[in-house]
Each structure stands twice: as structure tokens, then as C-alpha cells.
Amino acid sequence: MYLATVLLLMAVLPVGSVAVEHLWLHAPVLWLVGKWFVFWSAGVRLFVAGLRQFVQPRFTAEKIFRLKSGEALPIIRELGVANLATGTAGVLSLARADFVLPVAVIAALFYGIAAVRHAADRKRSRNQEIAMVSDAFVALVFAAYVGCVLLA
């Protein structure tokens, strides 16, 4: 289930949304990449992850970081609040296009650092592998988008 959720929110839904809107409205692809990756990969993905980390921190502790004790649960809840806040801004970007660039910057940093952190763990779990690859992918998408927008 984790893999399917990550694939949908980090690749399938944003790429599909870009393709459909580009074919339908002929909107510029760069603008659509920002719009839909911020909505799905930073917005919905982080909102859902944040909600789960806040309500059910043990999943992240055990399934992602392989922590057995409950000592990390308050920290994971704090991470959940940060993800919930960022996710909310990403979801609201559909109504406020001026949210797209700032959320893309935040997401590029967050996902990029998370990917490096997962890569540094030599004994990664399957879920950490999934997180590492998906985090690196969207970090690159967001970094490219931010770079293109700032250079334009």
C-alpha cells in the first residue's frame, strides 16, 4: 500500500495532471509542472503523511525508521505537524498560484535532504528505499522547476 500511495502521489497523478491539462488547455508545461507537482507531491502527499505521523506516529517510527521504542513518537508527531502545514500550503496552491514557488522551494529542500538522509543509511528498509528514490525524484523536479522559474 505504501508503494502504491507514493507512486500515485509522487509520479502518476502529477505527471498525468500535467499531461491532461497541457493537452486540454495547451498551458505551458513548466507552469503545469510547478502547479501539479506542488499540489500532489508537496500538497496532498505531505498533508496525508503529516496527518498519519501526527495520529499514528508508530508507523513512521517502525516502518520507515525501524525504531522500536516509543521515545521518538513525540518527535515524529512534530514532523507530522510540519508536514501537515507544508501540505496545507501545497493543497491551497490550486487556489493561490502565488503559493507554488515558495512551496516548491520548501519541498525541494525537504525532499532533497530527506533523500540524502535515507541514502546515508546503509541498512535501509524497503520503505526507506521507496522513500529515498521518490524523495530524490521529486526533489530534482522541484529544483529544476525553481531553477527555471528563477532564471526566467
Characterize the structure shown.
The chain has one domain (2-151). It contains six helices and no strands. The chain has helices spanning 2-25, 29-55, 57-64, 73-92, 100-120, 126-151. The N and C termini lie far apart (39 Å).
Give the biggest sheet: none
Radius of gyration: 16 Å
Please tell me the overall pLDDT. 95
Q: How many E strands?
A: 0
How many domain regions?
1
Shape designation: elongated
> Number of DSSP helices?
6
Q: Beta-strand percentage?
A: under 5%
Helix coverage percent of residues? over 70%
Structural class: mainly alpha
Report the order of strands and helices: HHHHHH
Question: What brief labels describe this structure?
Answer:
elongated; single chain; 152 residues
Question: Could you give a short description of this structure?
Answer:
The chain has helices at 2-25, 29-55, 57-64, 73-92, 100-120, 126-151. It is mostly helical.
Furnish the topology, listing elements before pairings.
Blueprint (H helix, E strand, L loop, with lengths): L1 H24 L3 H27 L1 H8 L8 H20 L7 H21 L5 H26 L1
Helix pairs in contact: 1-2, 1-6, 2-3, 2-4, 2-5, 2-6, 3-4, 5-6
